Each structure stands twice: as C-alpha cells, then as structure tokens.
C-alpha cells in the first residue's frame, strides 16, 4: 500500500508498521510546491566501476608515472651515458665510479593522451537518467583505455628489454671496472716500489758520494802519513841495525847467563838434596838424642798449695828440692816411737827422675822439657805423654790447663798442638804437606766413650779393632775422628770433651776425674817430590786419680769406679814390667788403656810420664806410693838405656824411600 501525503507534504506512516529509513525503490521524492512546474532532474550518485576496469586504470597510472620520470632525464645525460658505455673505451677510475653510481636511463614514454569523450557528448554531460548514454560513453572510454593499455604494455616490454640490456652492460662494465681496479692497484704498488727504490738509490748514491769524499780525504791524509812514515822508517831502520848489533851482543851474554843459571840450578838442586839429607840427618840425630835421653822418661811435678790449703799448712817442710840438682826430690817424714812420747829422727826418701818441677815452675817451663818429644811426633814417631798421680794432685791442670785458660796457663795438650801446627807450616817450603785428624775419648769402668759426642747422642759401646790383618795399627769404629787444620779447632774440641767428661765428688777431691781421658792427634805427612810418607800418633793422656779405698770411703758407683781405675793403673805397671823383663807375653789386653796405647809403649815410640804429687803433708803416704811407682818405671828406663832393658819392638811409624830412624 503506497504512502499517502498529507496536506503539508509530510508522509504519514501506515498503521501497524514501523517507519523505514531506506528509500523505497521505484518511488521518487515529491516535489515541493515551488518545483512542481520544473522538469524532473536526475539524481547524482557515484558509480563504482567494475573490478577489471579499476585494475586497468591503476596499471595505466603506474605506467604513466614511470614514463613521466624517464622523460624527466635530460637528453644530453642519456647521450653521455650511451657514449660512456661504448665498448673498447678505457674509462678512468673516477668516471667508472660515476657511471656505477649514475642511475640507468630509461627511454621516454610518449605522453598519454587525455581521455577522449564521446563525439556527441563533448563539453556536455549526460543527464542522470540517461543511463544508456552514460554506459555508451563508458564503453567508449574503456575501449580507448584498453588501446592505451595495450600501447603502454608494448612500451613497457620494450623498456624491460632495454633495462635488461643495460643490466648486462652494467655487469660487463663492473667486471671491467674490477679488473681495471686490480690492475690499477698493482700498477700503483709497482709505482710505489719503484719510487721507494728510487729513493733508496738516491740515498745510496748520496752515501757513496760522501764515502768517496771521505775516502778521498783519507787518501790524502794517508799519503801525507806515508811520507812521514817513510822518513820515520828510514830512521827506525838505522836504529834497528844498531839494536840488532846490540841484540847479538846480548845473545852472547844470554848464553853465558844460561850457562851460569844451569850451574846455579845444579847448585840449588845439590843444595836441596843437601837440605833434604840434612833434614833427614836432623831427624836421625834428634831421635838419637831422644833415645839417649830415654824413650821412656819420667818427670815429677809438685803442685803449689791452694789458697784454702795455706790456712791448714804453712810451708813445704816435708818436701826438699836440691838447688844443684833439678832431677832429685827428697821427702822427709817424722817417725815417732811406739809409746808416742819419744820422737825419733826424720826419715828421708830420696827419689831421682829425668826432671823434677817444683811448685814455682810454670806451665811454659814444663813444656820446654817435652817440646822435643812433640817434634819427634812430627818427624814420624809415636809419642805418648800421660799424667799419673793421686786424685787432686794437678794432673788435669798439667795436661789441659784451668777452665779460664790463658796463654800463660795453657796445659801440655794445647801447647803440643800449637807446636805441631807451627812445625808443619815451617816444613811446607821443604815440600812436606800434613793432614791432621783428632779424636778424644775416655775410658770409664773399662768402657770407651766418645767425648766429642754428647751423652744423649752416644750409641753402642765402642770397641778397639785392628785396621787390617796385615797392619798393627788400631782404630775404634764409630768413634768420631775430626779433621783439623788449626790449633783453634783443636781447642774447641778440648772444650767439648771437658764438658762431657765424667767427674764426681769424693772424700779426697770435690771434682775428681772418674775416667782416663785420651786425646790422640794422627799426623800424616807427604813429600810427593821425593815419594816420602810418614804416619805417627801423638797421644796425650790424663789418667784418673789413684785412690786408697780406706781413705776415699767410696761406696756403690764410686767404689766400682775406684776399683776400675786402680786395676787399669796396675795393668799399666805390669805391661811396663813385662817389657823390661823381655817376657814373651805382654798383657796389653788386660786393660783397655794399655790395649789402645800398645803401639806407643815400645819400639822407637817415645813415652813420657808425669807423676804429679800433692804438696799436703797429710797426703804423704799417697805421694810416696806414686813416687815409688814412677821410680820403678824410671829404673826400667835406665836399664833399657844400658842395653839390658826393654826389647825393641817394630816401629809403628815409617818413612818410605828415606833414611829410616835408627834402632838398637
């Protein structure tokens, strides 16, 4: 049912239906009162072209823009590009780079003609209601556009072919550019090398020119020097002739001097031989003198009173030292009757020894008497010096010296060592070289102890053994033998040994030595120019003090020590007595002391015994016992000197290829 208008022209909706905003097809809007007499106008509305038509229009617009851009390139530029791409032409590097960077020209497309309207419709628009006319116009336009698209497609294909040709040409040009660039780089490197070589050659040329100049200057100087040297050479030749004449004269004098030197060398050789024979003769005579004095000698020494002893005893009335005889000693003892009231006369005991030293004698005076024996040790003879006597009689002081030792109070051991090293230095100019080895041990309760080793470090008990079956030389395995090169080293060993020695307090002495201390210095000498060799041992013994059990009141350990000391001292007396009586068996092995010293108790060995006695009158009986034992030893020595005493044992020291020491 159609809408009906009201009187004022508004549309009234139908009853029962909703109003619609969409236009009703086939109906036209009513005209107003003012438009009623006008012809109907066609409504203008945009019409969308079909999809194929829109695509064709876009393609035409794109082609038209490319053609416009190509047409904008100047003609001269396109011509220059074509000229630059002409084959066979050499392009500079800068031009090649410009060509590479320059955009490739595109052929100009012809301008697209504006759309042509229908012939009958030029300058005139069809009415909106003339749809057929409009459709006809559109078809005309589409056909014209199709023609243009076909024409533009042809032009596009032509442009693509031209572009491909340009790309191929570009590739060829780029390869040519790369080849030319590498060739150019190579040429540039060669040019730089040539420039560098030219520079070096220029520098070398300059140096050579300078050298030529310098050499020329030097040549001129040398020519001047040559003239000077020529004149100097003439002068030298004259002097040389004079020198040759003088040299010939000196040669004659030199021959005479050589003859004199040969004579002097012969004389010196004879003198050395004579000195050697004199040295050997000195040794022989020295040994002969010592044998005449006695290979076994006994010295007696009386120590002075100590400060605290002077309060108990004034003077030495029981000891007499004859002024005219330094080998005699007289002891006197007051004898009382058995009743105890009457006093008998003094009983005197006369003793004679090789030397008697009063309390006033110093250590130096005592050593002067044994210095020759020490020299015998350096000459190659075994020497043994020991101190014997009761405890507290000054044996340790005599052999070692006091604790605070000074050059005046040094004992026999330090002085003997000092003399040995001094004598070795004096014999060095005569071709003698010496090597010294020292050891220090003690014999305590018939066991050996190394005094150079502290008590915690001592190992198993030491034993005395022979060096070999064919040798009579003895040694103690595991005993420390110290090589020494000076007397100072020996003094240090003495201090160590003194600190390790066994001492104890007894009723007779507050610091009694409870062992025999034995210091041995092995002296080995070579005279290689004469193939001489000597070996000797210097033994210095500080015997333990002899004691009587009824006076020492020793008990326990002290008692065993006293018994061992007295036993070894008794064995020493038995050995000396057996040697004097020519007994076939000598009891060396009864005591470690005599077994260790057996090489120094016979033959050409030298032995010296110090008998030390106390100056106290209360020790008179002990002094008498010591003096009687020493007197027996002295008497045996006197018998040996008369030719009826000790047998001569084979000498333990030797000299190879030399004058052997005399033996009786």
Automatic annotation (TrEMBL):
Residues 135-225, 268-295 form a coiled coil. ATP binds at residues 389-396. The lineage of its organism: Eukaryota, Metazoa, Chordata, Craniata, Vertebrata. Keywords: ATP-binding, Coiled coil, Cytoplasm, Cytoskeleton, Microtubule, Motor protein, Nucleotide-binding. Residues 295-636 form the Kinesin motor domain. It is found in: Cytoplasm, Cytoskeleton. This is Kinesin-like protein. GO terms for molecular function: ATP binding; microtubule binding; microtubule motor activity. Its main location: cytoplasm. Belongs to the TRAFAC class myosin-kinesin ATPase superfamily. Kinesin family. KIN-14 subfamily.
